[in-house]
Protein backbone atom coordinates (compact mmCIF):
# COMPACT_ATOMS: atom_id res chain seq x y z
CA UNK A 1 0.00 0.00 0.00
CA UNK A 2 1.34 3.42 -0.95
CA UNK A 3 1.05 6.09 1.74
CA UNK A 4 1.87 9.78 2.12
CA UNK A 5 2.71 10.99 5.61
CA UNK A 6 1.95 14.62 6.36
CA UNK A 7 4.58 16.62 8.26
CA UNK A 8 2.24 16.73 11.29
CA UNK A 9 2.74 12.98 11.75
CA UNK A 10 6.49 13.25 11.34
CA UNK A 11 6.63 16.02 13.96
CA UNK A 12 4.40 14.06 16.34
CA UNK A 13 6.62 10.99 16.02
CA UNK A 14 9.71 13.09 16.66
CA UNK A 15 8.42 14.98 19.68
CA UNK A 16 6.38 12.43 21.61
CA UNK A 17 7.96 10.68 24.58
CA UNK A 18 5.69 7.70 23.87
CA UNK A 19 7.75 5.06 22.01
CA UNK A 20 4.60 3.30 20.81
CA UNK A 21 2.59 6.34 19.72
CA UNK A 22 0.54 5.81 16.58
CA UNK A 23 2.73 8.30 14.67
CA UNK A 24 5.89 6.39 15.60
CA UNK A 25 4.32 3.06 14.73
CA UNK A 26 3.30 4.38 11.29
CA UNK A 27 6.92 5.33 10.60
CA UNK A 28 8.12 1.98 11.93
CA UNK A 29 5.69 0.21 9.58
CA UNK A 30 7.19 2.12 6.67
CA UNK A 31 10.74 1.30 7.79
CA UNK A 32 9.78 -2.38 8.02
CA UNK A 33 8.31 -2.34 4.51
CA UNK A 34 4.71 -2.91 5.61
CA UNK A 35 3.73 0.20 3.64
CA UNK A 36 5.46 2.15 0.89
CA UNK A 37 6.01 5.81 1.70
CA UNK A 38 5.63 8.25 -1.16
CA UNK A 39 7.29 11.67 -1.06
CA UNK A 40 7.94 14.56 -3.43
CA UNK A 41 10.79 17.07 -3.32
CA UNK A 42 8.32 19.67 -2.06
CA UNK A 43 7.07 17.40 0.72
CA UNK A 44 10.62 16.56 1.78
CA UNK A 45 11.36 20.29 2.01
CA UNK A 46 8.25 20.68 4.17
CA UNK A 47 9.47 17.89 6.49
CA UNK A 48 12.86 19.55 6.81
CA UNK A 49 11.29 22.94 7.61
CA UNK A 50 8.77 21.52 10.08
CA UNK A 51 11.34 19.71 12.23
CA UNK A 52 13.20 22.99 12.75
CA UNK A 53 10.26 24.98 14.09
CA UNK A 54 11.21 26.34 17.54
CA UNK A 55 8.61 24.28 19.41
CA UNK A 56 9.78 21.08 17.71
CA UNK A 57 13.42 21.93 18.35
CA UNK A 58 12.61 22.46 22.04
CA UNK A 59 10.88 19.06 22.40
CA UNK A 60 13.41 17.19 20.30
CA UNK A 61 16.57 19.07 21.27
CA UNK A 62 18.69 15.94 21.70
CA UNK A 63 17.72 14.46 18.34
CA UNK A 64 19.44 15.16 15.05
CA UNK A 65 16.20 16.23 13.39
CA UNK A 66 17.58 16.43 9.85
CA UNK A 67 19.04 12.94 10.18
CA UNK A 68 15.60 11.76 11.36
CA UNK A 69 14.04 13.21 8.20
CA UNK A 70 16.77 11.64 6.07
CA UNK A 71 16.01 8.23 7.59
CA UNK A 72 12.33 8.64 6.68
CA UNK A 73 13.18 9.77 3.14
CA UNK A 74 15.54 6.80 2.74
CA UNK A 75 12.63 4.37 2.93
CA UNK A 76 10.36 6.43 0.65
CA UNK A 77 9.82 6.44 -3.08
CA UNK A 78 10.33 9.88 -4.59
CA UNK A 79 7.71 10.87 -7.13
CA UNK A 80 6.61 13.94 -9.03
CA UNK A 81 3.54 15.53 -7.53
CA UNK A 82 0.35 15.92 -9.53
CA UNK A 83 -1.42 19.21 -9.96
CA UNK A 84 -3.61 19.70 -6.88
CA UNK A 85 -4.16 23.46 -6.72
CA UNK A 86 -7.21 24.18 -4.60
CA UNK A 87 -7.41 20.67 -3.15
CA UNK A 88 -7.26 22.02 0.41
CA UNK A 89 -9.33 25.20 0.28
CA UNK A 90 -8.82 26.14 3.94
CA UNK A 91 -5.03 25.74 3.77
CA UNK A 92 -3.53 25.91 0.25
CA UNK A 93 -0.09 25.11 1.71
CA UNK A 94 -1.42 21.57 2.25
CA UNK A 95 -2.07 21.11 -1.48
CA UNK A 96 1.46 19.67 -1.71
CA UNK A 97 0.38 16.68 0.40
CA UNK A 98 -2.53 15.91 -1.93
CA UNK A 99 -0.25 16.46 -4.94
CA UNK A 100 2.18 13.85 -3.56
CA UNK A 101 -0.64 11.36 -3.00
CA UNK A 102 -2.07 11.80 -6.47
CA UNK A 103 1.31 11.84 -8.20
CA UNK A 104 2.52 8.78 -6.33
CA UNK A 105 -0.63 6.71 -6.55
CA UNK A 106 -1.03 6.67 -2.76
CA UNK A 107 -4.19 5.15 -1.34
CA UNK A 108 -3.88 6.93 2.00
CA UNK A 109 -2.63 10.20 3.44
CA UNK A 110 -1.83 9.89 7.14
CA UNK A 111 -2.24 13.21 8.91
CA UNK A 112 -3.08 15.02 12.12
CA UNK A 113 -3.85 18.25 10.23
CA UNK A 114 -7.51 19.21 10.51
CA UNK A 115 -7.52 20.91 7.11
CA UNK A 116 -6.51 17.67 5.45
CA UNK A 117 -8.74 15.51 7.63
CA UNK A 118 -11.75 17.63 6.65
CA UNK A 119 -11.35 16.86 2.94
CA UNK A 120 -13.89 14.35 1.70
CA UNK A 121 -13.47 14.24 -2.07
CA UNK A 122 -10.09 13.10 -3.35
CA UNK A 123 -10.75 10.25 -5.79
CA UNK A 124 -8.92 7.10 -4.71
CA UNK A 125 -7.26 8.68 -1.67
CA UNK A 126 -8.40 8.44 1.95
CA UNK A 127 -7.11 10.78 4.65
CA UNK A 128 -6.75 9.10 8.04
CA UNK A 129 -5.36 9.86 11.47
CA UNK A 130 -2.37 7.66 12.42
CA UNK A 131 -4.41 5.50 14.83
CA UNK A 132 -7.18 4.91 12.29
CA UNK A 133 -4.63 4.03 9.64
CA UNK A 134 -3.00 1.49 11.96
CA UNK A 135 -6.35 -0.16 12.67
CA UNK A 136 -6.85 -0.63 8.92
CA UNK A 137 -3.28 -1.77 8.36
CA UNK A 138 -3.54 -4.40 11.10
CA UNK A 139 -6.90 -5.59 9.75
CA UNK A 140 -5.49 -5.98 6.23
CA UNK A 141 -2.49 -7.92 7.57
CA UNK A 142 -5.00 -10.10 9.29
Give an account of the 3D structure.
The chain has 142 residues and is α/β, with parallel strands linked by helices. The protein has a single domain (2-141), classed as Rossmann fold (3-Layer(aba) Sandwich), CATH 3.40.50.1010. Helix content is 50%, strand content 12%. It has 8 helices and 5 strands; from the N terminus they run βααβαααβαβαβα. It has a 5-stranded parallel β-sheet. Strand 4 (108-110), helix 7 (114-117) and strand 5 form a beta-alpha-beta unit. The longest helix has 12 residues, at 130-141.
Q: Level of helix content?
A: 40-55%
CATH domain fold name: Rossmann fold
Order of strands, widest sheet: 3-2-1-4-5
How far apart the termini lie comes to 15 Å
CATH class: Alpha Beta
- The number of helical elements comes to 8
Counted up, domains total: 1
Which structural class is indicated by helix and strand composition?
Answer: alpha/beta
Assembly type of the chains comes to: single chain
Radius of gyration, in Å, reads 14 Å
Give the overall shape.
globular
Largest sheet: 5 strands, parallel
> Could you tell me the number of beta strands?
5
What are the low-pLDDT stretches, counting only 5+ consecutive residues below 50?
none
Instruction: Give the name of the CATH architecture.
Output: 3-Layer(aba) Sandwich
Roughly what is the average pLDDT, rounded to an integer? 91
Amino acid sequence: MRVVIDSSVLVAALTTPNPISASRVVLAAAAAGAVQLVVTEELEAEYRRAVEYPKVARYAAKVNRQKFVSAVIAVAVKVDGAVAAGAVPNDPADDKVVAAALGGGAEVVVSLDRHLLDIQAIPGVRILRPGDFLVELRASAG
